[in-house]
Amino acid sequence: MTGALRTSRTEPPLCVVCASPTAFRFAKSDYEIFRCETCGLGCVGQLPSSAELAEFYGRTYYNSAHDLGYASEYGDLESGLKKMYLRFLRRVERLHPEKRFARLLDVGGAYGFFLDVAEERWSPSEAVAVDITPEAREHNLAKGRVFHHGFFEQVDLPEAHFD
After folding, report:
1. Sign of the alpha-carbon torsion through 106, 112, 117, 121
2. pLDDT tens for residues 13-59?
3. Is 142 helix (H, G, I), strand (E, B) or coil?
C-alpha cells in the first residue's frame, strides 16, 4: 500500500464511536491517523478496501519480516501491550463507573492480549475475538476463546449484544 495519502488533512472524519471531531495525529503507510478529541479513539481517515486489508494483515503482519507491521515479534510485546490495555480499562471504568462489562467483543483481537487483561480484571461471562489473520485465530483458539475469523462486517454476531 504505497502512493498518495488516502485522505486530506482538511477533512478529518468524525469518531466512529462518539461522533465527535477528530484531529490529525500522523501518517503511516500512506494512511492518515486521526484521534478523537473527546474519547481518544484513534482511527484511519479513509478505510482501506477488503482486499487491501487482507494483503496488509497477511501471515507475516505480526512478525518483524513484514515492513508495515511490527518492528519486532508481536508476541515479544505482550507485557507492554497488557500494561497499556490495563491503563485503558481503568480509564473506561472511571468514565463508566456504573457499567458492568459482562459481554466483551474485541474487533481486531490479534493474539488476544486485550481480552486476557479484560478477562482477568472483569471476569466477563463472554469474551469474543474477531480478526482476519491466521495467527490471531490460532492464538485465541489455543486460549479456549470464542473466535470469528474474518472481517467484522461479515461475521454473524447478535445485534446489540455486547457491552
Report:
1. positive
2. 998 888 899 999 998 777 899 999 998 888 888 878 888 888 877 76
3. helix
At 100, list the grid cell.
Answer: 458492568
Phi, psi of 7 (to 5 degrees): -135, 175
Reading the block at residue 113, the C-alpha cell is 492480549
- Tens digit of pLDDT for each residue in 64-88? 665 555 556 888 889 999 999 999 9
Q: CA Rg, the chain, in Å?
A: 16
Task: Report the relative pairing of strands 126-131 and 146-149 from DSSP bridges.
Answer: parallel
Locate 76 and state its grid cell.
515479544
Strand order in the sheet with 126-131: 103-107, 126-131, 146-149
Burial class from Cβ neighbours inside 10 Å (0-12, 13-18, 19+) for residue 158 reads exposed
Instruction: Tell whether the model's pLDDT for residue 116 goes beyond 80.
Output: yes
How far, CA to CA in Å, does 119 sit from each of 10, 16, 43, 82? 40, 25, 25, 12
Tell me what pLDDT residue 64 has: 62
DSSP conformational letter for 24: E
CA 4 – CA 23 distance, rounded (Å): 20
